[in-house]
Amino acid sequence: MCAKASMEEFEALLNESFEIDTPSEGSVVKGRVLAIEAGQAIIDVGYKMEGRVDLKEFANPGEQAELQPGDEVEVFLRQVENARGEAVISREMARREEAWDRLEKAYADEQRVEGAIFGRVKGGFTVDLGGAVAFLPGSQVDVRPVRDAGPLMGLKQPFQILKMDRRRGNIVVSRRAILEESRAEQRAEVIANLHEGQTVDGVVKNITEYGAFVDLGGVDGLLHVTDMAWRRVNHPSEILSIGETVKVQVIKINKETHRISLGMKQLQDDPWDTVEAKFPIESVHTGRVTNITDYGAFVELEPGVEGLVHVSEMSWTKKNVHPGKIVSTSQEVDVMVLEIDSAKRRVSLGLKQTQRNPWEVFAETHPEGTEVEGEVKNITEFGLFVGLPGDIDGMVHLSDLTWEGRGEDVIGDYRKGDVVKAKVTEVDVEKERISLSIKAMDGDPFAEAIGGVKRGSIITVEVTKIEDGGIEVTYEGMKSFIRRSDLSRDRAEQRPERFGVGDKVDVRVTNVDSKTRKLGLSIKAREIAEEKEAVEQYGSSDSGASLGDILGAALKGDR
After folding, report:
1. Domain total for the chain?
2. Which residues, 6 or more positions from 247, have their beta carbon under 8 angstroms from its beta carbon?
3. Who's near 553: CB < 8 A, 6+ residues apart?
4. Distance between CA atoms of 232 and 234, rounded to whole angstroms?
5. Residue of 323, 353, 322 whose CA lies nearest to 335
6. pLDDT (tens digit, 9 = 90+) per residue, 107-119?
7. Which residues, 6 or more positions from 449, have their beta carbon under 8 angstroms from its beta carbon?
8. Would you give the DSSP letter of residue 298?
9. Last residue of a domain, one of 211, 235, 267
């Protein structure tokens, strides 16, 4: 009975010793280095188990392993015994398990971890975090894109864990977050020592199209292109270069966003303070064209002072033309000061005012009646435009093309490029209009034909055509028409058929219309006028003489 109890106790103690001394697979155990041979360390992990581990598993990336016999190390027991009767152990897996425990705690506490970049992969880099490998995206390496990451390789430095998944073995870290935090602290310290209006020295760190970033000793300020100089600066590289030390003034500080606005021109005298004295109204100056837009051209009068020549003030004659066809960038031009607004820092300039108005010059040199010769520049539905001296045009209206017929019928005889002669009939300088007449070159045949004929004159005409409504007659080549009602004082005699073609007839002129170029004629009016004259000469209303007696006396008197 006693012997049986002793055996049970021994068995229990033996099982307990097995449980205590025999490590379980998949756990981290402590071992002692027995020897180092053939690039491997032979490690005793207890319970008379030995295993082999490559020395490189004990070294950090890019370093040599520092391991000696007798050193105690922790290894991961993957298998108690392999085919050769050795334990399968791994220092790397032990470090990984240890690292994951440590990193999970740091991730939970939002603490930084130390690591070293040791490799490059697609989209970023690999980082050794003391046993665990993490991924460092390219965008998280620095606050600005890094072209060469060579100096950062193998260098121990802090990282921030952004994301980790132990089950999948994924860890994402950031070096940029550490730098931004450090920069934020540095910025806050530097900004605390700055104030608006302060003059400081800085180093040009980066140049963009809209300005330059200047390092003020740990904090960057923006020097906008409009604050670099009082004159127009097309690109910051015109006056700045990267690495250059410049003196700037702090214009504005945003305490919340830590943005700093800087200026260079503020350290120089403002040229606009003396603009009105240097450039009085209507004074003429030579300037340089700095910029051309759709609405005009900017001309620099002196460094820092620019004025606008509006497109309407560029040329007397070139209307609706892009300013680039009149002036070119960097061209020197003479301009007149038209208006100054110092408050808005604007100067209105005129280019055409430096030359005489060509319409005024033409009016002086070509008074009405002057003959001119020019090329037909354009043909419209209402007339011709003819090129004249001074790069201006004159217009020949349809009504001034010909004396005979309609202008609409003869304008088709003209073509662009034809050289024509005309007379100046009117010059309106204010409206910039010049009226010309081609028909005036031949004189007015109507005026020449009627000569001294005026209303009330008695003339002799020749019958050329008989119609129901009257007769057509000619006088010195000018055609007129006498209506039936004007053929006689006596209604019974108002018959066109009593006349024949070629008959000579005396008529009275009732109207002279120079516009329609027509004479108003009447036989009836002549007869009435003759009767009235006879009454006044040979009889009166109280003499008792009859009309026949009076006319008979008049006829006898004529004989």
Report:
1. 6
2. 199, 200, 201, 264, 267
3. 538, 539, 545
4. 6
5. 353
6. 888 888 988 998 8
7. 475, 476, 477, 478
8. E
9. 267
In 3D space, the residue among 557, 534, 558 whose CA is nearest the CA of residue 546 turns out to be: 534
Q: Tell whether 103 and 169 lie within a shared domain.
A: no
Question: Is residue 14, in this structure, part of any structural domain at all?
Answer: no
Residues 424 and 419: their CA atoms lie apart, in Å, by 16
**458 in helix, strand or coil?**
strand
* 533 and 462 inside one domain: yes
The candidate with the shortest Cα–Cα distance to 493, out of 464, 523, 532, is 523
Say which CATH number the domain at 377 has.
Answer: 2.40.50.140
pLDDT digits (tens, 9 = 90+) for 269-320: 888 888 888 899 999 999 999 999 999 999 999 888 889 999 989 988 888 8
The phi, psi pair for 446, rounded to 5°, reads -65, -45
* Same domain flag for 500 and 419: no
Asked whether 213 and 221 are in contact (CB, 8 A), the reply is yes
Mean pLDDT of 463-491: 88
> Is 553 part of a structural domain of the chain?
no
Read off the tokens for 527.
């007869």
Share of the chain above pLDDT 70, in %: 82
**HEC letters along 49-104:** EEEEEEHHHHCCCCCCCCCCCCCEEEEEEEECCCCCCCEEEEHHHHHHHHHHHHHH
Q: Is 523 left (phi over 0), alpha (psi -120 to 50) or beta?
A: alpha
Tokens of 117: 């970049």
Does 205 lie in the same domain as 263? yes
Q: Which has the higher per-residue pLDDT, 549 or 48?
A: 48
HSE on the CB side for 347, CA within 13 Å? 31
Cα–chain-centroid distance for residue 92? 63
Instruction: Give the Cα separation of 324 and 443 in Å (integer).
Output: 46
Which is nearest to 392 in space by CA: 437, 357, 354?
357
Q: Tell me whether residue 168 is in a domain.
A: yes
Confidence of residue 542 (pLDDT cuts 50, 70, 90): very low
Higher-pLDDT residue of 383, 3: 383
What value does the mean pLDDT take over residues 476-505?
A: 87
Residue 283 domain flag: yes
Q: How far apart are CA 490 and CA 528, in angstroms?
A: 10
Query: Across the strands, what pairs with 260?
Result: 253
pLDDT mean across residues, the chain: 82
pTM of the model: 0.45
Better pLDDT: 254 or 333: 333
What's the rounded Cα separation, in Å, for the pair 51 and 11?
Answer: 29
CA distance 382 to 76: 105
**7-21: b or e for each residue (b if 16 or more CB lie within 10 Å)?**
eeeeeeeeeeeeeee
Q: Which domain holds residue 121?
A: 110-180
